[in-house]
Amino acid sequence: MGKFRELIAYKKGFALLMDVFNLTKDFPKSEQYSLVDQMRRSSRSVCSSIGEAYKKRRYPNHFISKLSDADMENGETQVWLDVALACNYISEEKFNYLDAQCEEISKLLNFMISHPAKFA
């Protein structure tokens, strides 16, 4: 089977985390230790959980559990995007783009969760 870095979910998750990283560089300094840290942490956790899941793919329950964690972190990223939009730190256009990325990642993760044997 290849490497976790070859998974579409990982590639899209990594692109999202880099978008979040670059986006949050321009957030107010007052948000550095709250919203910025939370957004960066949750978006990074998506990829780290995918990497961990892939290394546990021989054990379907562990694989599914870690992918579920990745999906949970992805959902948390969406919450922080909601906050960023409500605080006018990002445009609606940027929000829609990033939220659509999150939704696509979620679909990919849920496919993997539903079909763990395809990744064993």
TrEMBL record:
It holds the Pfam family 23S_rRNA_IVP. The lineage of its organism: Bacteria, Pseudomonadati, Bacteroidota, Sphingobacteriia, Sphingobacteriales. InterPro entries: 23S_rRNA-intervening_sequence, 23S_rRNA_IVS_sf. It comes from Pedobacter alluvionis. It comes from the Bacteria. This is Four helix bundle protein.
